[in-house]
Amino acid sequence: MNHPSPAIVAQAAVRRLPRLALLLFCLAYVLPGFLGRGAWKSEDMTALGYMAALAHDGADWLHPSLLGIAPENPALLPYWIGAWALDLCPSWLAPDLAARLPFMLLLALALLATWSGTYYLARSQNAQPVAFAFGGEAAPKDYARAIADGGLLALIGCLGLAQLAHEATPALVQLAFSSLLFLGLAALPYYPRAALVGALAAILGLSLSGAPALGLLYVLGGALIHALDKTGEPEQRAFGARLPLVLLLLLGALACAALGWSLHLLRWKIEWPHATLKEWNGYAQLLIWFTWPAWPLALWTLWRWRRQWLTRSISRHLALPLWILGVTLFATVTSAASDRTLLLALPALAALAAFALPTLKREMAALVDWFTLLFFSGSALIIWVVWIAMQTGFPSQPASNVERLAPGFEASFSGTALAPALLATLVWAWLVHWRVGRHRAAIWKSLVLPAGGAALCWLLLMTLWIPLLDFSQGYTTLVSSTLRQLNPPGCAQTLGLGRAKIAALQFYGNLQLQPLDGAARCPWLIAEPAADMDAPAGLDPQTWQLLASVRHPTDGNERVLLFRRR
């Protein structure tokens, strides 16, 4: 039994979002966060340390390490990418920026793959809108392009994407390759060979970036959906035509999983959650805020398109993103790094959210618009007020809050940061004016404000607040304070330091670090304090004299103890 599509869309509703405007919008979202800042704590700094160890310290490329400490995330490709960038960067380019440049391209790949994957899902037969009796319904390709525009806007609007997608860590590499795999699985019925190559490359990338199990599970479900799908191009509708492609996809996925196993990248990392109200409340808050505004639209999609599950042919535009979303949600609640795991669900969730647009009622669209307008306008106003307070001391309360939370921070004025912030604010005002005007035809209109607001606030933070964020989230102040105590700096032994602090002292401090149990006899020792902030247990007081205790300016728990050899 075939049920009609709930999408009733006229040709006027799928008018094209200007490509130049969309490109500039994506650039305004991608560039801030990669440019003009140092590495932040702690995963961003740790990953940079492993990259530098591969590029300059002669570390084993199959077993990266920092002073003999293996990465917490079993990954190789992210550190290889950063190390290659450090090797190739010219002398005039800051090394930390050079290491981030390839990751900027990976974020762009994630955005492009999400748009393209949503486009091919929207071209499927069951995703098409209702045909009008006398014509005038949306053309299939125009409809698919409008849905894809909505999917891209939904992804950019997700609050959880901003920070994690602008860090040079394995999480961003996994996001890029999971998006590419989503595109490969979505495009299989239309471009079998190219889609198969892209999917296999994505599985390999996921395996080498620390997520071989997720890549294998994504492919298992995607292959089954493709095997059951009877839509797509005519030459791919017969099961016999689809079977070789499915087998090649499965064999490639198994080969990549075997490679991950041989490189010790496939590990048991499942941690069953505790059945406590506090823990499940934490997961609920993470899901609500991390995936806003895509999750309510995705739920609306599942409700409005519910009759499509009863069709004789599988509805790929629902089944594929829902499978990826379900697998990732399971991994999220059974993983220690739940936010970085949930990041991989955002492309599929954005695609699901996009299919709500042609069925969205005016009341729900207005609710999304008003919430978005108030939330992001209020957030932008707070960012501007705090910046003005940092520059002038007025209003006094925000200025005193900054002084209390970041003691020692000295604000500085930058015209190069102010100009894009002013321009972005003016564009936001124009966008709000455009949205409340008589522009109700385009189906992607309901996601313009969420995406624009998220991009605005992220750009304001990465321009106006970047000195404050570098001061509070980076390690440069801690490193410089440490170096002032070491006279002369150079060789130092370490005891109990975490990966991020080791990476910061090596990368930004140019210190030659050695573990305490090694053969080196350095004049200095940098140690992690005990729980009571005293000297670590087992340290010989006859050999080492406590020189100073250096703390992070905004985090009292981030502290190192400096000892001098007697």
Please characterize this protein's 3D structure.
- It is a single chain.
- By secondary structure, the protein is mainly α.
- The protein has 3 domains: about 325 residues, no CATH class; about 110 residues, no CATH class; about 90 residues, no CATH class.
- Helix content is about 60%, strand content about 5%.
- The chain is built from 22 helices and 5 strands.
- A 5-stranded mixed sheet has the order 2-1-3-5-4, with helices on one face.
- A hairpin with a 7-residue loop joins strand 4 and strand 5.
- Helix 18 runs antiparallel to helix 19.
- The longest helix has about 30 residues.
First and last CA, distance: 86 Å
Quickly give the structural class. mainly alpha
Q: Please state the overall shape, judged from the principal axes of the Cα atoms.
A: globular
Number of domains: 3
Helix content range: 55-70%
Spans where pLDDT lies below 50 across 5 or more residues: none
Radius of gyration: 26 Å
Read across the widest sheet, the strand sequence of neighbours is 2-1-3-5-4
- The helix/strand series, from N terminus to C terminus, equals HHHHHHHHHHHHHHHHHHHHHEHEEEE
Largest sheet: 5 strands, mixed
What proportion of the residues form beta strands (DSSP E)?
under 5%
Separate helix tally:
22
Number of strands: 5
Top keywords for this entry?
566 residues; five-stranded mixed β-sheet; mainly alpha
